[in-house]
Design goal:
The chain has 462 residues and is of the alpha/beta class. Helix content is 27%, strand content 24%. The two termini are 28 Å apart.
């Protein structure tokens, strides 16, 4: 059952809308390279479209009713948007859920050191990465430094054309005979992913500081630019990501190359579907965008936290309908698209895929009935009735879609947040965009698939 390439079906008007969505998506990628930056951008866009802070509404003693648009956020890294529907919320919600964290390098808490007149920042990689991908690239530093008095200092270095970039060195080919004999997982070790950050020593230092004159110069620059001390690294969250903007890919400009498309491609299209939806929906719509998926959805801002459950409880309370039973009914009766990317079929690595059950760029949004590894371990496995319902929604709304598995059965595997939401007894299926070079510093998607994902999420919440 080979699916048709979506590009073959577009009218001139649809092509214009597709390009508009693609351009706004690229801007979102550029402005949201970390989960904190994503949440800031999401809240800004939500408020411009009539959403208000649920906590502020509750503090003012205001009730929540049909037609209201509210959002809730925690720790600046996880956010949920709700558009209240005409039906009782206990009849269930239509939920779009995606994650906004991506593989990267995190700066350690005691990171700054000098060696051989060069200054470095020590890192710890976050999520599943091929470590050799991260060397010999222009890199940028994003994040926050929180001082003891609570002052939050935002840091962005390497994105402006006038900014310096950061860098991780690699061994020259002339001396790498021994290195080249190592396996891919060992050729660059985690402790070798240190960021080159300076080489100019500071003069006129006391004798006890002269041995680290380059490091002292870096500290001077940080003090002048951000008014922070070395000890402030202890309470910092600094992320190293590829420097540069999202770009059109291919001579036909049909694709997008960028950092962080896993899973901001699904996060953005889900958000856009919520924001452009007009009128009061029949069922309450929800867009849940979470952190920590790349490391198991753990922590206070991951899907395994009680954030979503607590915020739905707050929502019910603001509607005068809270009880533990009503909360459980609301979650049980809800339906979710767990919106995460899928592995696009790559002819260069065809032996990793089972072609009949692979996702192809340009053929629309991908439905993964199950993920997991080998014997479906760690998978949600959506029931057939729900898959049929989603098929009908997509077909009725002319959404191009395809179905896939994540590679050959014994080739490896992966998981998403679907199994966590399924614990509430709600219907959940993975649905997202096919990606080439997933988890690499730069990933590739098809503009057609981005557009079809947006259409699919619109159809689902409608």
């Amino acid at each position: 059952m080979e699916r048709r390439n979506a590009w073959l079906s577009y009218s001139e008007a649809e092509m214009k809308e597709l390009e508009k969505v693609a351009e706004s998506y690229k801007q979102f990628l550029d402005e949201g390279k970390t989960e904190r930056e994503c949440v800031e951008k999401i809240i800004c866009m939500a408020e411009q479209n009539g959403y208000v802070d649920l906590d502020a509404k509750r503090a003012a003693g205001e009730t929540v009713k049909a037609g209201d648009k509210v959002y809730a956020v925690s720790m600046g890294k996880i956010v949920a948007l709700f558009h209240i529907g005409e039906e009782e919320i206990t009849e269930g919600m239509n939920i779009l859920c995606a994650h906004i964290d991506s593989p990267r390098l995190d700066i350690k808490q005691n990171p700054l050191y000098e060696e051989a007149d060069l200054a470095y920042l020590d890192t710890h990689y976050y999520g599943g990465v091929k470590k050799y991908h991260w060397v010999a690239l222009p890199l940028a530093l994003h994040g926050v430094i929180v001082k003891k008095d609570g002052t939050v200092v935002k840091v962005t270095i390497g994105e402006d054309e006038k900014d310096p970039v950061l860098y991780i060195t690699d061994l020259l080919i002339h001396l790498s005979a021994k290195q080249m004999q190592k396996t891919a997982s060992e050729v660059i070790e985690g402790e070798k992913l240190d960021i080159l950050i300076g080489s100019c020593p500071l003069s006129d230092l006391p004798d006890d500081k002269k041995k680290e004159a380059v490091k002292e110069n870096v500290l001077r620059i940080l003090k002048e630019k951000y008014d922070v001390e070395e000890e402030d690294f202890l309470s910092a969250e600094l992320e190293v990501v590829p420097a540069g903007k999202a770009r059109d890919c291919g001579l036909d400009r049909s694709m997008i190359a960028s950092y962080g498309q896993d899973d901001r491609v699904c996060a953005y299209t889900s958000l856009l579907a919520m924001l452009v939806k007009e009128g009061t929906p029949k069922k309450t719509s929800c867009c849940l965008l979470v952190d920590k998926e790349e490391i198991g959805s753990v922590g206070a801002t991951g899907m395994q936290s009680r954030f979503f459950e607590n915020r739905v409880a707050d929502l019910l309370d603001s509607m005068g309908a809270y009880s533990d039973l009503q909360l459980r009914r609301t979650l049980r009766n809800s339906a979710m698209l767990s919106s995460d990317v899928s592995a696009g079929f790559d002819p260069a690595y065809a032996d990793a895929f089972e072609k009949k059950n692979a996702a192809f760029l340009g053929r629309g949004i991908v439905l993964n009935k199950f993920t997991g590894a080998r014997g479906k371990s760690g998978s949600n496995d959506a029931n057939a009735e729900y898959v049929a319902r989603i098929r009908r929604i997509f077909d009725d709304n002319q959404v191009a879609f395809q179905t896939a598995e994540l590679g050959r059965v014994d080739a490896g595997g992966g998981g998403t947040i679907a199994y966590i939401a399924a614990l509430y007894e709600m219907n959940v299926i993975d649905s997202g965009v096919a990606v080439l070079s997933m988890h690499a510093p730069w990933e590739v998607t098809s503009k057609a698939d981005v557009y079809e994902a947006y259409k699919a999420y619109m159809a689902f919440i409608s």
